[in-house]
Amino acid sequence: MANTNTANANTLTEGQFLIAGDNGLKQALKKLLNYTNGTNGEVNAHFESIWKVQNTGNVGTVTVAWPKGVKNMYLVQSSDATIDATDSFTPMTTEVTVNGVVYNTANVTLADGQYFTFAGYAYAPGGVFSAAWYRADAVSNLFSDAGTTVATDNATVQQWNEFNNKPFSLLQATAAYRPKFSNVTTLANFNPTIIYDGTQKWLQYAPADAQGYIIDRSKGALFSAGNTTSAASSLFGFGVAGSGNAMDDPGLYSFTGNKFLFYPVIGEYDPQSTYTINGSYIGGGTWENGTGTGGNNAVNITLNGFHQTYNTNISNVNTTATRNAMMVGKADAGAQLVGQQNEMIIFADKLTDEEVNKVESYLAIKYGQTLSKEQNRNYLSSMGTVVWDGSASSYYNNILGIARDNTSALHQKQSQSINDGQKLIIGAGSSLANTNIDNANSLVEGQFLITGDNGLKQILNTPLVYTSGANGETNHRFEAIWKVQNTNNVGTVTVAWPKGVKNLYLVQSSNPVFDATSTFTPMTAETTVNGVVYNTTNVTLANGQYFTFAGYLYAPGGVAGSDFWIRSDDAGDIATAWKDNSINANDIPAVGTWTLSSADKDHNFHPYTTGYSASKLFYNNASMLNPTNGELPNVSHSIFSAVRPITLGTGRITGIDDDATYAAEPAASIANGKPRHYEYYNTITSTDFSSNFNIGESNVFSTIADNSVANGGTSTFSGGEKKVRTEWFL
After folding, report:
1. Among 259, 512, 513, 601, which residue is least crowded by beta carbons within 10 Å?
2. In whole angstroms, what is the distance from residue 329 CA to residue 233 CA?
3. Are 654 and 639 in contact (CB under 8 A)?
4. According to the model, what pLDDT value does residue 460 have?
5. How far from the centroid of its chain's Cα atoms is residue 155's Cα?
6. Of 5, 10, 83, which is closest to residue 44 (Cα–Cα)?
7. Cross-strand bridge partners of residue 411
């Protein structure tokens, strides 16, 4: 080739013509195609555009050129318009510069009636090719300056590059407006994230001309994966460049009441999800102007896998050229993002329902998210393979998984459900790390191991006697049971549970019935992940297998399932915290200076605690019983306490609340010498016993609330007074 036709030294003969035309579709990698036998590396896609050739007079060798930039590029020739791995793949490795543009080239013969296209390798979330893609885990794309210094933990982000190296970098020139990067202190299922604190933190891409527009916005899709509990937060969207960007053409928001909102155009507050964002989320909206009822916009939105359609009375997206800037984290003077952005994806076309499902499946696996059980969402690979069967609804809870899907650039090597209270970790190979990036183990392409549980309690409360194991005997197993879907033979994995369960075993079964003939694997090894000590074991979890955990449970009176149980005769280091003997092992921290008083006959020869005051007590503002530090007025509960009051006074024995001063929603108390049960302090929903505590003697006090009076239910009370050892449990 040459810069001009005249300068090209090659020739044709009289009567030779070679003409080609295409099918009018996109000249970009859009169609999945698996090819691994070429010398220029593997292929995962080909151009949507296909050319047909008419060769007159037997034109021989020609040079075919395409601008450099397609990874692992091949020219693909076929005798028909169906492109597959059996066609002819010619590597395009040679480079030539024509008028300042570098091209990849190949020398071939294009026969009369032949078809051709181009193939290469492109990363595509869920196998759906994107217009732009921003990932917090692509650490080399995040900079604390103008594209030179890679951001480190807690550094502010000035530049965030597009994942597939497209020229759509997000920028923030003003230091005070930059969000922070974290790959240590704040993680999303062991992956990095970008943190916005609600105080004018934002990034934007502001194109100068049409060549730089990400999409034309007449159709497309936006996806966001992150975390927010704010009632009004800007996630990301398009609008006018600058700090006054309204980000509504279109945009994604958490709106009034934490509703997930897709803005099609400024001022229109639909479509809006019937579900709320409250913490970690995966949300998206896809649209096409003019294809809804009566020429309206046709929009589909999804929040955590729940898909909804809106196609009436929805305005078409404003495609004015001045509103082509893309902004993250801020909309005009309000609705600043409070939370994290883990990932953002933009598509140039309206996605089908299956394509939406594939994109959110990729995000859900990566970030430990459970998709919509209500709609029985399958989890799909980039090739459309069902890697978690949504019809298994009995086990569609707290889903987590490890996976390798090269098309999605997904290699999730360890995982934990992000749902509240979830502790189980599963990792590839025989070890875990603090982050997914630091995990040195690997899966092979196409391997997925996904598991979900039956939604029951993850504590020892179901009898299971096993006496033959090397880690000691068991008497109970977890009520929770997990089911496994193993795609492409994932081998050894590490299963981890926080240390604290006595004689812990992983128990595997081919069905959800567990007995002494099931497979018991001792969990004696220990590892620390992000400051938490776990017991671990290395096993293979077969496809269709079930598993749970078993151990030895001490239970007051043989009644399993206590959530909190402290005993003065087994108090641990009470100067720091009072040991919790329940399965949760959630020790309650000491406030003030504490030592156990020595055992004596007045306390039936057991040690005891005394001297409580406003500055001397035991308090945990993020307990397993109340992880959100809130009020629990509608929770059924049973509280047992053994106390020895010495005056007919008033004071709290134990309680749960968002207020350490009162701790009475619910609570057990002494009130003017009488036992009192608080169900809800703010509405004075309480009940006093008719008789006083026995002063100077040990008393048993038990209060039981069934569905709580504060929630329209009833309460019953039982218990007597007798000399007992000093302890209580909940």
Report:
1. 601
2. 8
3. yes
4. 93
5. 23
6. 83
7. 404
